[in-house]
Specification:
About 35% of the residues are buried. The strands form 2 sheets. Strands 1, 2, 5, 6, 7, 8, 9 and 10 form an 8-stranded mixed β-sheet that branches. Strands 3-4 form a two-stranded antiparallel sheet. The chain is of the alpha+beta class. The N and C termini lie far apart (about 60 Å). About 20% of the residues lie in helices and about 20% in strands. Strand 3 and strand 4 form a beta hairpin.
Length: about 200
C-alpha cells in the first residue's frame, strides 16, 4: 500500500522522509508525528488532510481521553523537541474569552478551556497550569498545541517560534474535518439567496 505524503514547509530547504505511522492498539488509531519547525496551524491542518494511510484520510490529532493524551504526548516527546499542533481551535462564533469555544476539527465536539479534577474532565482536557491564557493579548492564541514543557499538556498557542511540527491521526471512524468560517458561511448564504432571487424572477416572466 502506498502512502501519499503531503508536507507543507515554511522553507525551501525543508525536506524529510517520515517513518510509517504508529498504531495505538488500545484505540486502533494510527498517529504520525511530523517535524515542521514554525509551521502555521492552517498549513499543518492542510498537511494532515493531504495524507492518507491504509485508505484513511488524516486529520490533525484530536486528544479526547487520558490514555490517548499519554500515547500522543509520549510519541511527540520521542520525535523531537518543541510544541506540536493538535486539531483543536477556538470557534470564532463562540470565542468570547481565552477559555471559550475550544472545538475539535473533525466534529468530535467541544472541549473545556478549564481542567476537571486532575485534568480528567468529560469531555477531556489537560491544560498546562495557567492555560489557556491568550498570552499575547485577546484573540492571539486560538489553536491547540501539546508538549510545551509538559508531556501531554495542552497549551493555547500563537507563537510559531515554539512550534516543532504537528500530529496526524488516522481514525477508521473519523468524522470529516470541518472548521467553521464565518466569512465563507456568509458568502455561501449570499450566493444561495442570489440564486433564489434569480429563479423567482424567471418564474414571474
Amino acid at each position: 500500500m502506498k502512502k501519499h505524503v503531503l508536507t507543507l514547509c515554511l522553507s525551501l530547504a525543508c525536506a524529510s522522509a517520515w517513518a510509517a505511522p504508529i498504531l495505538d492498539p488500545s484505540s486502533g488509531h494510527y498517529y504520525d508525528v511530523i517535524p515542521a519547525s514554525g509551521i502555521t496551524w492552517d498549513d499543518a491542518r492542510s498537511g494532515a488532510l493531504g495524507n492518507f494511510y491504509l485508505g484513511l484520510q488524516g486529520h490533525l490529532a484530536t486528544v479526547t481521553s487520558s490514555g490517548e493524551d499519554g500515547y500522543v504526548g509520549a510519541a511527540v516527546a520521542a520525535a523531537g523537541s518543541g510544541e506540536f499542533w493538535l486539531g483543536g481551535f477556538q470557534n470564532p462564533i463562540t470565542e468570547t474569552t481565552a477559555a471559550a469555544g475550544w472545538t475539535w476539527v473533525n466534529g468530535e465536539g467541544t472541549f473545556p478551556g478549564v481542567n476537571g479534577a486532575l485534568g480528567f474532565a468529560n469531555p477531556y482536557s489537560n491544560w498546562n497550569s495557567g492555560e489557556p491564557n491568550d498570552y499575547y493579548g485577546a484573540g492571539t492564541e486560538q489553536y491547540l498545541g501539546i508538549n510545551l514543557g509538559v508531556v501531554g499538556g495542552f497549551n493555547d498557542e500563537g507563537n510559531l517560534g515554539l512550534i516543532g511540527g504537528y500530529v496526524i491521526e488516522y481514525d477508521p471512524n473519523t468524522i470529516p474535518d470541518h472548521v467553521p468560517d464565518a466569512g465563507a458561511t456568509a458568502s455561501l448564504l449570499g450566493g444561495a439567496l442570489a440564486m433564489l432571487a434569480s429563479f423567482a424572477r424567471r418564474i414571474r416572466k
